[in-house]
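thought: fold this chain, then report.
action: predict
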Amino acid sequence: MHNGHLSFWMARDTMAPPPTATLDGDLDVDVAVVGAGLTGLWTAWALRQLDPGTSIAVFDAHQIGYGASGRNCGWLGAKPVGMRNVLARTAGREAVVDVEQALRRSMHDVVDVLGADVIDARHGGALQVARSASQQHRLDDYLAYSRSWGVGEEQLRALSGRQAYERVRVAGLTGALHTPDNYCVDPVKMLFALADQVVGSGVEVYTDSPVETVTAGVLRVRGHTVRASRRIVVATEGYTAAQPGFRRNLLPLNSSMLVTEPLTDEQWEQVGWQHADGLSGSAHTYFYGQRTPDGRIALGGRGKPYRFGSGFDDDGRVDQRTIGQLMATLAELFPDTPLTAAHAWCGVLGVLRDWSPFVDADTQPGVIRVGGYAGQGLTAAHLAGRTVADLLTGRRPTAAPWVRRMPRRWEPEPLRWIGANALYRAYTVADFLEERSARSRTSRIALVANAVAGR
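observation:
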């Protein structure tokens, strides 16, 4: 089994990003973008659409796809990004509803721009399953909450255990929620297709070009000076924690994944996963996954949630205990179908203290900072990039509630490490207790953990 090498998606020999350069001298541009992931590239793409004459340069410390954009599960969906009540305080309830409609449009726009065949986009939807009384109760509560925000039956519907089993033969189903608003894609094909378009439009993309300092209108990159006459955009998600003065703003939360060896036709018949649904659970320590275009199961979960001092992984390597936990989840879901792991990896995503995205044009003069999707980045990055481009060209921002100052910082160490890992342990214990109880009530341990986490 392969371990690390960034991800299964990135390690394939058939995948190659467009040619890029490494900065080797001073540079003057209109807009400089830090981060060549989805947010940075969609920002460059959207700005090029709105203002073709703008000179744009994108800088990345590593390679295209090194971060979360090259390591995720491949859900291009319209699930709400952030906490509705938090965002409503910024721009009002109606604006939050507008953003959720914009996410649905963005989901389809990405496929239209990049091409369904190019990115292996399969429009099935997303299925969140329940396997206990407490999980089912949480799904019922979430459905009622969604209805209170105007989410109709055509966007989110409840399935009985039997109906859910007809879509995926997960053991012990009590019910599920299903939304049609999701594509499963090959995330690196998607990223590289976008990079091809950005580079082809004349945007300069520099890789292996780490940004050392960010000040108003000026970047220092590999000892060279980059002057941006209009604005600098910082789109570094979880890696923001590596920048001086921002270690506590975005928590680099770890998520781990694996893919199996390809399943046989007989195994797929047993699993019954014939629709292109993304699949997730409703336990506190949840899982998420997809059926890949080449006939594998990709499954993700948290593993070790956080490294001391906002640290990062080593080339995506995963500890053996986490691999064992992910394989155990597969065995619980599909106990009659022996599966073999082919590749495991991990990466970080950026999480704010209020779990909601931001496009901050006010905190640092001459700089726009953007991110904080908490795991919903494939669609959110497109919408955020368009919003940044709107601000740069004086238009009304597409995602108005996201335009806000970064919220309060996470706690200092060692409180940050103790809190993050203690919360994950609490959720693990809550799941253990709920699985052994016939009661529908959520564990008090989980409720306390939610309050502490701010969720």
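thought: worth noting. The radius of gyration is 21 Å.
final: tokens above.
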